[in-house]
Specification:
The protein is mainly α and 83 residues long. The chain is built from three helices and no strands. It is globular and about 30 Å long. The termini are far apart. InterPro entries: Puta_zinc/iron-chelating_dom, UPF0153_domain.
Length: 83
């Protein structure tokens, strides 16, 4: 599956526990990452400073569903299940 351009659900719904530029404590689940631009694209994509969690994320239908809204719900559910 290809990422949906402008979705950004994977940069909002999950918590990220590792430090990143501008977010030394990571981010909470549901918090918008400071590195999402106005088009919901990651400004750190392809950079070494991108968190490992983000580097390892792969768009999959069971996580991303068929829309941004569904992705937000599915990723939030996974977040709760893995806490």
């Amino acid at each position: 599956m290809e990422c949906r351009p402008g979705c950004g659900a994977c940069c909002i719904a999950p918590s990220i526990q590792t430090a990143m530029p501008g977010m030394p404590h990571g981010k909470a689940a549901g918090e918008r990452c400071a590195h999402l631009d106005e088009n919901d694209l990651c400004r750190l994509f392809g950079q070494l400073t991108r968190p490992r969690f983000c580097q390892e994320f792969s768009a999959q239908e069971y996580v991303c569903g068929s829309s941004k809204e569904e992705a937000m719900q599915l990723i939030a559910l996974l977040e709760v299940q893995t806490c």
